[in-house]
Amino acid sequence: MKRRFSDIEVQSSPHHETSKNNLLLYFYTLRPPGLTMIQLSPSLLIGKGTERLCYQHPDDPQKCIKVTHNKAHSKHQNEKDAVYYRVLKARHIPFTHIPQCYGWIETSLGSGLCFDLIKSDSDQTLPSLNQGLEDHTFSLNEIRPALNQLYQYLYQYRIFTSDLRETNIICQPKGTSWHCFLIDGLGDRDFIKLAAHSKWLGHLKVNRQWRKFEKRLEKWRPS
Ligand SMILES: Nc1ncnc2c1ncn2[C@@H]1O[C@H](COP(=O)(O)OP(=O)(O)O)[C@@H](O)[C@H]1O
Ligand SMILES: [Mg+2]
């Protein structure tokens, strides 16, 4: 029987679940080997990062599945994403500038984490911020309002990043303007998570991370 993955709550690695609900979810995510495992073929590949490959979901073109390719140097980004998305879901933040995460899926390439696939209205894959700037799809000035909106979003909902960089931002055309999605590099790396529990510290942290990102953007400013 085919499982409806969209019903599954975000969970950390299934092997670490202990609570009753999570245990139920764990069994719910189990697939009989060979019968319901999702096959990921090269034709579905959307993008490749330093650690993960991103494939279009073969049964749902609106979603993607990320699997680890660089296992030797893995920083366990899928596991970290699953944990942080669970925190965000518990806080009921809107998923307007980050893709929704739908939990784990077994694939032919190992366990993958499923997300909304960010595409154009005409179903085309979209440039990352650095691609768009490099090939002059937009200038920094043109994308600036969309970046400001992304900053406002991170600030308002105190969403922390561990790898805020141009390659992790996807730019979607919206009429004559743009909308930015942060598709990777979320997370709270603090050992003692003080900023997660204080609005004031949380805002300071978002500002600090954004200032660092702005420094990275300087190289794209017209001279
Ligand atoms: N939700 C998404 N929607 C559309 N494309 C995506 C999405 N997530 C990742 N990608 C594409 O896949 C690439 C690699 O994904 P990413 O999560 O950045 O991997 P890594 O963690 O290895 O850096 C991205 O640069 C982007 O092109
Ligand atoms: Mg990345």
Question: Can you give a write-up of this model?
Answer:
- It is a single chain.
- This protein is of the alpha+beta class.
- Mean pLDDT is 88; it is low at 1-18 and 24-31.
- It contains five helices and seven strands.
- Helix 4 packs antiparallel against helix 5.
- It is 30% helix and 20% strand.
- It has two domains: 5-116, Phosphorylase Kinase, domain 1; 129-220.
- It has a five-stranded antiparallel sheet, with helices on one face. Strands 6-7 form a two-stranded antiparallel ribbon.
- The longest helix has 19 residues, at 199-217.
Query: In the CATH hierarchy, what is the architecture of the largest domain at level 2?
Result: 2-Layer Sandwich
Please provide the count of β strands. 7
The proportion of residues forming helix, as a percent range, comes to 25-40%
Q: List unreliable stretches of 5+ residues.
A: 1-18, 24-31
Helices, by number, come to: 5
β-strand percent reads 15-25%
What is the gyration radius calculated from CA atoms? 18 Å
CATH topology of the largest domain: the name is: Phosphorylase Kinase, domain 1
Bound compounds, each kind once, are: adenosine-5'-diphosphate, magnesium ion
Number of domains: 2
Task: Present the secondary structure layout.
Layout: H1 20-29, E1 45-48, E2 52-57, E3 60-68, H2 77-90, E4 101-107, E5 110-116, H3 129-134, H4 140-156, E6 169-174, E7 177-182, H5 199-217
Antiparallel strand pairs: 1-2, 2-3, 3-5, 4-5, 6-7
Helix pairs in contact: 4-5
This protein binds adenosine-5'-diphosphate and magnesium ion.
The site of magnesium ion has 4 residues, from loops.
